[in-house]
Amino acid sequence: MTHILAIDQGTTSSRAILFDRDMQPVRSAQQEFRQHYPASGWVEHDPEEIWQTVRDTCRDAAGEVEVAAIGITNQRETTLVWDRATGKPVCNAIVWQDRRTAEICARLKADGHEALVTERTGLLLDPYFSATKLAWILDNMDGARARAEAGELAFGTVDTFLIWRLTGGARHVTDATNAARTMLYDIKSGAWDEDICDLLNIPMSLLPEVLDCAADYGTTDLLGGQVPIMGVAGDQQAATIGQACFTPGMMKSTYGTGCFALLNTGDEPVASSNRLLTTIAYQLGGKTTYALEGSIFIAGAAVQWLRDGLGLISDAAQTGELAASADPEQEVILVPAFTGLGAPYWDADCRGAVFGLTRGSGPKEFARAALESVGFQTRDLLDAMQADMGAQAKTVLRVDGGMAASDWTMQFLADITGAPVDRPTVLETTALGAAWLAGMQAGIYPDQNGFAKRWALDKRFEVGMDAATRDRRYAAWQDAVGRTLSRP
Predict the structure, then answer these.
(1) What is the DSSP-derived secondary structure letter of residue 27?
(2) Which of 197, 251, 366, 480 could in theory staple to 333 by disulfide, Cβ–Cβ 3.0 to 4.6 A?
(3) Which of 257, 241, 302, 254 is nearest to 410 (CA)?
(4) What does the pLDDT read at residue 441?
(5) 168 in helix, strand or coil?
(6) Strands ordered across the beta sheet of 421-424
(7) CA–CA separation, 169 vs 154, rounded Å?
(8) Hey, which residues does 228 pair with through a beta bridge?
């Protein structure tokens, strides 16, 4: 048995990818699932639909191959609570994009609690993270708090829920990277934080056991026989691993539904002065490696909006061609704050806006504006990282995710950031990271150094825009954002 199965459970779809002994993807399956928007700023998923799509894609991708181990990577922060006896969720999953707890976060900030939260967790008080979502469920679902206090309920991010289902309820576990995104985990001591749990009135009995990214997560009979689950990491950390960013100063940026840039800072957490997040990059052999992270809520989702919301395109791949043929005299700017803005603004209440429209603006200009918004937001993150880390953050940007396949988008990214952009031969770095964790733990794949040597460049995008144009375009973006924010 030399094949590894990676489960990549994302925000809009579930995928399973089968990797061979040489860490090459040989077969995959993917299923989209529904997005639920019950109120403005609310985003939910049906946990049973997530489970069904994971179950079916795993079986489709594995086929008749005997799988040696399974690795899991997942959308982070998305919050689930279920009955320990039946495994039945008490409500829909509250998705990381959901902003319903903005008032809770504002109240906690006003009461002076953000300093404690940031010191312990490396995070800011924002509805993005799991903690206030969990508190909301306990306070708003009928009988949930009493059942939680009686020890009848379990909390988890998507990885924990999947492992529970895969192991038939035998394991209630998560890994350090997912725990670090809950806003309940002390990333320095490596333990759930009792003070923050008390602050939010969250019973600690709800919380899963925290393990290394490569560890024994139990076994599943989903594929027949007993297959071990041996690797887990949140999607952005899995992509960091898949990009072999094992050396301090290395940086990757993943372009999926959102965009997330991580800068490896080594074995010491670095506190940001520019509203970035301090987080865990990975934990192996009991040793924690930290990162600075910038989080953009809307990247590929802006293209999805062009397709599903406006009907301007029928396929995401059309956007690059449309953008390339847009009127160069028009500079339409889209601020895609559909669910607020993430780093470095952290404004949960602002909403999307379009600037610079003329009578001649059409699908081409909208496509270009959507793609350019990803570059502009990445520039926001890189500027903040350089302000925090200085020269150490002035590095080549390794990119991955679905949007990284667009040459037009990656060239604009290099142009507007003023930094080279490296695209690897394997764009499925999130799934690759999960597969490597499981395969390395199973003794099939090489160690960190051996894995890093396998990283291969597909194309480097060099900076082609002059500094004056770059600065002018970015200033226009900053002006648009300033007019979009809900507060000065």
Answers:
(1) E
(2) 480
(3) 254
(4) 95
(5) coil
(6) 277-284, 287-296, 259-266, 251-255, 397-400, 421-424, 457-461
(7) 11
(8) 219
How would you label 254-288 residue by residue, b for 16+ Cβ within 10 Å and e otherwise? bbbbbbbbbbbbeeebbebebbbbbbbbbbbeeeb
User: Half-sphere exposure of 171 toward its Cβ, with a 13 Å CA cutoff?
Assistant: 21
Q: How far apart are the C-alpha atoms of 334 and 366, rounded to whole Å?
A: 8
Percent pLDDT > 90 in the chain is 75
The CA distance from 461 to 284, in Å, is 32
Bond preceding residue 344 cis, omega within 30 of 0: yes
Please state whether beta strands 397-400 and 421-424 pair in parallel, antiparallel, or not at all (unpaired): parallel
- pLDDT of 41 reads 85
Q: Sorting pLDDT into bands at 50, 70 and 90, what band is 478?
A: very high
H/E stretch holding 480 reads: helix 467-484
Residue 269 gets the label, from left (phi > 0), alpha (psi -120 to 50) or beta, of beta
Q: Which residue has the higher pLDDT, 390 or 170?
A: 170
Q: What percent of the chain has pLDDT over 70?
A: 99
CA distance 141 to 308: 31
Amino acid at 65: V
Residue 394 has pLDDT above 70, yes or no: no
Cα–Cα distance measured from residue 125 to residue 445, given in angstroms and rounded to the nearest whole number: 39
Residues with Cβ within 8 Å of residue 64, at least 6 apart in sequence: none
DSSP three-state, residue 386: helix
Distances (CA, A) of 227 to 15, 51, 53, 436: 18, 18, 19, 16
Q: What are the phi and psi torsion angles at 408 (to 5°)?
A: -60, -45
Structure tokens at 197: 């749990």
Tell me the whole-structure pTM to 2 decimals. 0.86
Report pLDDT for 393.
58
Q: Which of 383, 304, 378 is nearest to 338 (CA)?
A: 304
pLDDT of residue 428: 83
Q: What is the mean pLDDT of the chain?
A: 92
10 Å CB burial of residue 373 (0-12, 13-18, 19+) is buried
Predicted pLDDT at 1: 73
Q: Is 139 helix (H, G, I), strand (E, B) or coil?
A: helix
Judge whether 393 and 442 are in contact, CB under 8 Å.
no
- DSSP β-ladder status, 227-234 and 67-74: parallel
Query: Does 391 have pLDDT greater than 80?
Result: no
CA 28 to chain centre: 21
Residue 349, pLDDT > 90, answer no
Pairing of strands 219-220, 227-234: antiparallel
